[in-house]
Write a structure and sequence with these properties.
- The structure holds two protein chains of two kinds.
- Helices cover about 35% and strands about 25% of the residues of chain A.
- Chain A is built from 18 helices and 24 strands.
- In chain A, strands 6-9-10-3-11-12 form a six-stranded mixed beta sheet, sandwiched between helices.
- Chain A is globular, with a radius of gyration of 24 Å.
- Chain A starts with a strand and ends with a helix.
- The mean pLDDT of chain A is about 90.
- Chain B is mainly α.
- Chain B has a domain at about 60-320: ABC transporter involved in vitamin B12 uptake, BtuC (Orthogonal Bundle).
- Chain B is about 75% helix and about 0% strand.
- Chain B is built from 15 helices and no strands.
- In chain B, helix 3 crosses helix 9.
- The two termini of chain B are about 30 Å apart.
- Classes of the chains: A alpha/beta, B mainly alpha.
- The interface between A and B is large, with 51 and 38 residues.
- The structure holds adenosine-5'-triphosphate and magnesium ion (MG).
Chain lengths: ~525, ~375
C-alpha cells in the first residue's frame, strides 16, 4: 500500500535552539489508525504541528497524495483535508457548540449568519459520526468530553480526511474514551485516516493499526500492532524497562492527618456540589477517590486547598480548621496540591521554571535572605529539582511555556513533592505524562506515603486509583456512596456500580471505616 | 544560550532602529509637504535640544518627569493592572510638595526632603484608593483611576485658587518658592569640567531630582526582581490564578502595587513643582500624566530601560518643541510627526509580520517543485 502522507527528513529547530525533530521520516497509510507515542518532549506535537502547518520545518518535506505539500498556515492544511485537535482545546468559551463548529465557514443569508442552518448542520454531522453533542449549549457549560467531540466535529465540518488527535484521551473518563474510540472506528469505516497521540499504551493496543515510537526527536520505529506488547513499547519509548504496575509495600497507617466533618458546598450558581462529606486521611496511606468526573471531586479539592470557600463543615489538620483559610495558610499547615488543571492554576506559563518552582517558598529561608530573594539560592533549588525530577529543559531560566506538556506537569510535581508535606492532595497527577514519568510519579507517591505522608488521590483513571490506593471512597453527585477499606479486594465492576449511583452503602456501615 | 540571548537582543535593537528610521523618514515627508523650509525645520527637530544649553536643560528636566512616570506605569503594568492614575497622583504630589515648600518654616535641608516625602506619601495614598477598589470591590481600575484623576485635579485647582494663591496675585499661581523650598541644582565637581560645570549650574535647572531619578530606577528594578514583593507583583501579572493557588495574597499585592506606583508618580509631581516651575501653577502636569505609558511600553516595563526610553521620548518632545518655536511648522503637525514615530516604534507586531512574510516568500522560492511533483498551491497564508 502506498502511504497517503509521507514526511521526509523533517528537522525542526525552535528559535531557542531546541531540536524538537531531528531527521524524522514518518508515513501514514490511507484508512488506518496510526498511534504516535513517545516520552514527554520527544517531539510528537511538534511533528504534528508541522503536518498541520502551524510550525514550519527547518528542513525536510511532506508528500501528500503523491504531491509535494507546501504549508504556510493551518488554512492550507485544512484546504487539503488535514485537521488537528490540539492537546489544549481552542474553542471560544462564550459561543454555542454550533457556532464554534461553523466558525469561519458560516453560511449566511443577506449577510446574517444562519443560526438555524448551523444547528442543523451540527446535528446531522454529529449523527453521521455518532459524536453526541448539544448544538445549542454554550461551550463554557459543557464538560471536557463533549468539548472534545466539538473539536472533532469542527475539523470534520471543514472536510478533514486526515484527523490528528493530540492526546485526546488524557482528559476523558473511561466511558468517554470508549465512546471516542467508537467514533474513531466509524470515521475510519468512512475512509478517513486518524493519527492519534497518546501516553496510554493500553489504548494503543486497543485501537490502532500501526504505531510509531519517537524518542528525543527521532523515530525509533514503526510497527504493526500485532507485533508489539505494552512492555515492548514502553522499552522502545524510554530506552529501558519500565514498571507498568506499582510495587507497593504494605501500608503502615498512622494518625489521622486530615479530618473532614460534614462538609457541604454550594456553587455560585446555587447547585449543591458537596453534601455532608465526612472522612479522614491517615498518615502513611493513600486514600483514593473514585468517581466519574464532575461529581464534586474538583470542588472537594479546591475547597480543601482554600481555593473555594466551603459553605459549611470543618476540615482539621492537626486540630486546626483549614476550611475557611486562604491557600497560604493551608500550605503552611503542611498541605501540598497537584491541581487538576495545570495550565490555569498550577503554572504561570510566561514565568520561568525557577519562578514557578518557588511560589510556595519565596517568602522564607533559604530563598528569602533579609528582605531580598536570593537569586543564587533560587538557581540552586531550580537546578536541583530539574535534575531530580528529570525536567527536560536547557536550564531553569526559560519560560515554562517552552516545555512540552509532560514536562510542565513535572515542574508542578517537583514543587509540590519537594515541599515536604504532611498531606499531599494529588488531582489527576499523571494526566498527560509519559510512561516513564508516570512510573516516576506513582512511585514517588508510594514513597511519600510509605514515609508517612497522608495522600489524597483523585484520578479519573480508575486503574490508577485501584493500583495506588490503600483505601478507596467513591463519590457520586457530591456524596460518598461507598467506602472500601482494602483497595486490593475491590473490582472495577463493583466500583462502577457505586460510581454510577446504582448502589450505595449504609451510612452506618460506612462511618466505621471512613 | 548566551549566544541566543545576544542574537535576540541584537534583533530587538535592529527592529527598533529600523522602526525609528522609517518613522523619521515619514516625519520628514510630512515636513516637506507642510513647511517652506523643510530642511531647516527638520534640523531644528532633530538637533534642537542640543543646540543651546538651556534647551538641553529643558530636555533633561522633562525626561526626568517622564522617567518617574514611566517607572510608575511599569510597576502596575507588570502586575497587569491598567492603572491610568499617574496624572492625579502627580498633581497631588506637586500640591503636597508645594504646600510644604511654601508654608513649612524649616531650613532648606529639612524642608526639601520633607516636601519630597510629602509628595511620596500623597502619591502612595492616592494609589491606595483604586487599589482597594480593585482588590476588594472588583472595580475596574481604568475607570476608577480616570475618575480619581478628575477629583485630584479639581482638589488641586480649588486649593490653589482659594487657599494657596496670594490674594493680590494677578493670575492663578502660588508665590514662587524661596530657596529653602526649591530643589537645588547640583553638579558633581568633576575636575576637568571646571568651566562647563558653572555654566551648567547657571543655565539649566537640572536639580537633585536627577539623582533621585537614578536612585528610583535602581530601587524599582531591585524591588521588582529581587524582593518577595516584586515576585508577587510579577506572578500576579503572569497568572493571577497561579499566584492565588501558590499562596500569594493577591488582593494585598494589587493594593500595594497601585500604591507603590503612586509614590513614583508623586515624585514626578515633586519634581515639576520644586525642580521645574518652582511654584504651583494651573495645569502643572503639562499633560505629561499619560506619557509615562509610552515610556513604559517602549521599555517593555523593564525599569532599567526606562531611563533610556524616557530620555529618547523626552528628546522627541523637546525637539518638537524647538521645531514649533523656530520654524513655520504648526503645533498640530509637530504632534502628528511625534505620533507617527511612537506608533511605529511601539507597533510590536509590525516587524515580526514583515519577518514572517520574508521567510514565507523565501521558503516558497526555495521549495521549487521537482519535475515530477506538482506543488499544491498554497491558498490564504497569514
Ligand atoms: N514553542 C516552542 N518553543 C521552544 N521550544 C519548544 C516549543 N514547543 C516545544 N518545544 C520543545 O520542543 C521539544 C518537543 O516538544 P513537543 O511539544 O513536540 O513534545 P511532545 O512529544 O508533544 O511531548 P508531550 O508528550 O509532553 O506533549 C520539547 O523539548 C519542548 O520543550
Ligand atoms: Mg505534546
Amino acid at each position: 500500500m502506498t502511504p497517503i502522507i509521507e514526511m521526509r527528513d523533517i528537522v525542526k529547530v525552535y528559535p531557542n535552539g531546541v531540536v524538537a525533530n531531528d531527521g524524522v521520516n514518518f508515513s501514514v497509510e490511507k484508512g488506518e489508525i496510526h498511534a504516535l507515542v513517545g516520552e514527554n518532549g520527544a517531539g510528537k506535537t511538534t511533528l504534528m504541528k508541522i503536518l498541520y502547518g502551524l510550525e514550519r520545518p527547518t528542513e525536510g518535506e511532506i508528500n501528500y497524495k503523491d504531491r509535494l505539500l507546501e504549508l504556510n498556515s493551518p488554512l492550507d492544511a485544512i484546504d487539503n483535508g488535514i485537521g488537528m485537535v490540539h492537546q489544549n482545546f481552542m474553542l471560544i468559551p462564550s459561543f454555542t457548540v454550533a457556532e464554534n463548529i461553523v466558525l469561519g465557514e458560516e453560511k449566511t443569508r443577506s449577510g446574517l449568519i444562519r443560526q438555524d442552518q448551523a444547528v442543523q448542520d451540527t446535528e446531522s454531522l454529529a449523527k453521521e459520526y455518532g459524536l453526541r453533542v448539544d448544538a445549542n449549549a454554550i461551550i463554557e457549560s459543557i464538560n471536557v468530553g463533549m468539548r472534545q467531540r466539538v473539536e472533532i466535529l469542527k475539523t470534520l465540518y471543514r472536510g478533514a480526511e486526515i484527523l490528528i488527535l493530540d492526546e485526546p484521551t488524557a482528559v476523558l473518563t473511561p466511558q468517554e474514551t470508549q465512546e471516542l474510540f467508537k467514533a474513531i472506528r466509524a470515521l475510519v469505516d468512512q475512509g478517513k485516516t486518524v493519527i492519534f497521540i497518546t501516553h496510554k499504551l493500553r489504548e494503543v493496543k486497543e485501537i490502532s493499526d500501526r504505531v510509531t515510537v519517537m524518542r528525543a526527536g527521532k523515530i525509533v520505529g514503526t510497527l504493526k500492532i500485532e507485533e508489539v506488547t505494552r512492555e515492548g513499547l514502553a522499552r522502545m519509548m524510554v530506552g529501558r524497562d519500565v514498571l507498568l504496575s506499582v510495587d507497593k509495600p504494605p501500608s503502615d497507617r498512622g494518625q489521622a492527618v486530615l479530618q473532614v466533618h460534614d462538609l457541604s458546598y454550594v456553587s455560585d450558581t446555587g447547585v449543591q456540589m458537596l453534601k455532608n462529606m465526612s472522612f479522614n486521611v491517615y498518615a502513611g496511606e493513600i486514600l483514593g477517590i473514585a468517581g466519574v468526573e464532575g461529581n464534586g471531586q474538583t470542588e472537594l479539592v479546591e475547597v480543601l486547598t482554600g481555593l473555594r470557600e466551603a459553605s459549611t463543615g470543618a476540615a482539621y489538620i492537626d486540630s486546626r480548621d483549614i476550611l475557611q483559610a486562604d491557600p497560604r495558610v493551608v500550605r503552611m499547615a503542611g498541605v501540598a496540591h497537584i491541581p487538576e488543571d495545570r495550565l490555569t492554576n498550577g503554572l504561570a506559563l510566561l514565568a520561568t521554571i525557577d519562578e514557578n518552582l518557588i511560589v510556595d517558598r519565596y517568602f522564607r529561608a533559604p530563598i528569602k535572605k533579609g528582605f531580598r530573594i536570593d537569586q543564587g539560592a533560587v538557581k540552586k533549588l531550580g537546578n536541583r529539582l530539574i535534575e531530580e525530577y528529570d525536567i527536560r529543559t536547557i536550564n531553569g531560566q526559560v519560560p515554562v511555556s517552552s516545555l512540552s506538556g509532560g514536562n510542565m506537569q513535572k515542574v508542578i510535581v517537583a514543587r509540590e513533592f519537594s515541599s515536604d508535606p504532611k498531606l499531599l492532595i494529588a488531582a489527576q497527577p499523571t494526566r498527560g505524562i509519559d510512561v516513564g514519568a508516570t512510573e516516576f510519579v506513582r512511585q514517588e507517591l508510594v514513597v511519600k506515603r510509605t514515609e508517612g505522608t497522608a495522600v489524597l488521590l483523585v484520578s479519573a483513571d480508575l486503574s490508577e486509583v485501584m493500583s495506588l490506593s490503600d483505601r478507596i471512597i467513591v463519590m457520586y453527585e457530591g456524596e460518598i456512596t461507598g467506602v472500601f477499606p482494602d483497595a486490593s479486594t475491590v473490582t472495577e465492576e463493583e466500583l462502577g456500580l457505586y460510581m454510577l449511583g446504582v448502589q450505595r452503602q449504609d451510612v452506618e456501615e460506612m462511618e466505621a471505616v471512613l | 544560550m548566551k549566544k541566543v540571548l545576544q542574537s535576540s537582543a541584537m534583533r530587538e535593537l535592529l527592529r527598533v532602529l529600523i522602526a525609528i528610521t522609517v518613522a523619521l523618514t515619514l516625519g520628514f515627508i510630512i515636513t516637506v509637504l507642510v513647511s517652506d523650509d523643510p530642511i531647516g525645520a527638520y534640523k531644528s527637530f532633530l538637533f534642537g535640544p542640543l543646540t543651546k544649553l538651556n534647551r538641553f536643560g529643558d530636555w533633561i528636566e522633562e525626561s526626568i518627569t517622564l522617567i518617574f512616570l514611566g517607572l510608575a506605569v511599569a510597576l502596575v503594568f507588570k502586575a497587569e493592572l491598567f492603572s491610568l492614575g499617574q496624572e492625579g497622583q502627580m498633581v497631588l504630589g506637586a500640591l503636597a510638595a508645594g504646600a510644604v515648600a511654601l508654608f513649612v518654616p524649616l531650613p532648606g535641608y529639612l524642608r526639601i526632603p520633607l516636601a519630597i516625602m510629602a509628595a511620596m506619601v500623597v502619591g502612595f495614598l492616592w494609589g491606595l484608593i483604586p487599589g482597594y477598589l480593585k482588590a476588594y470591590l472588583d472595580a475596574n481600575e481604568i475607570v476608577s483611576t480616570l475618575m480619581l484623576n478628575v477629583i485630584a485635579l479639581k482638589i488641586y485647582e480649588w486649593l490653589l485658587t482659594y487657599s494657596i494663591k496670594p490674594p493680590d496675585a494677578g493670575y492663578t499661581a502660588s508665590a514662587t518658592f524661596t530657596a529653602e523650598g526649591t530643589m537645588p541644582t547640583f553638579f558633581p565637581p568633576i575636575p576637568f569640567l571646571g568651566e562647563l560645570r558653572t555654566l551648567f549650574m547657571q543655565q539649566t535647572n537640572i536639580s537633585i531630582a536627577l539623582y533621585l531619578m537614578i536612585i528610583a530606577t535602581v530601587v524599582v528594578y531591585y524591588l521588582m526582581y529581587h524582593t518577595p514583593f516584586g515576585y508577587e507583583l510579577r506572578m500576579v501579572g503572569a497568572n493571577i490564578k497561579f499566584a492565588r493557588y501558590g499562596g500569594i495574597n493577591t488582593k494585598r499585592t494589587i493594593v500595594l502595587a497601585m500604591a507603590v506606583s503612586g509614590i513614583l508618580a508623586g515624585l514626578a509631581g515633586a519634581h515639576v513643582a520644586g525642580g521645574i516651575h518652582r511654584k504651583l501653577i494651573l495645569n502643572i502636569t503639562f499633560g505629561l500624566g499619560f506619557e509615562g505609558i509610552i515610556v513604559a511600553i517602549l521599555a517593555r516595563n523593564n525599569p532599567l530601560l526606562i531611563p533610556f526610553t524616557g530620555l529618547a521620548y523626552g528628546y522627541l518632545r523637546a525637539g518638537a518643541d524647538v521645531m514649533e518655536r523656530t520654524s513655520d511648522m504648526s503645533r498640530e503637525m509637530v504632534l502628528v510627526i511625534q505620533a507617527v514615530i511612537i506608533l511605529l516604534v511601539t507597533a510590536e507586531r509590525i516587524m515580526p509580520m514583515i519577518q514572517k512574510r520574508i521567510r514565507t516568500n523565501r521558503a516558497q522560492r526555495n521549495g521549487d517543485p521537482p519535475a515530477d511533483a506538482e506543488v499544491i498551491p498554497a491558498k490564504g497564508g497569514d
